[in-house]
Amino acid sequence: MVVKITAGRHVLKAKLDDSAASRALWGKLPLTLPMSNLYGREMCFHFGPGGLPANEAKDQGYKVGDLSYWPPRGSLVILYKQNGEVFNHQTLGHINGDVSFFDKMDEADVTFEKAS
């Protein structure tokens, strides 16, 4: 499952993992989400608790470019900068490309759609 992600003039592609949460996200596409910059490392949108299945969430680190789900607030997260934190989340997939431009955005409408 490959997702096209558009934020302003930036276009990226992410490959989703084969998990219940990733398949649930895939089933919701296309989506345009108002994402906010949090903690100087991530762009985030809150679906609300239960937004995606989270049966595979665990305490773990992350890689720059990971697309993750944070269960407590039902948050879809694009991780664009590393700070070494370990937190409870479920990795949904990984974005191939430079995501550092998110550091300059406070908020952005980000579109997720199935790539052809």
TrEMBL record:
Domain Cyclophilin-like: start-end pairs: 5-113
Name the record gives this protein: Cyclophilin-like domain-containing protein
InterPro entries, per database record: Cyclophilin-like, Cyclophilin-like_dom_sf
Organism: Synergistes jonesii
Annotated Pfam families: Cyclophil_like2
SUPFAM superfamilies in the record: Cyclophilin-like
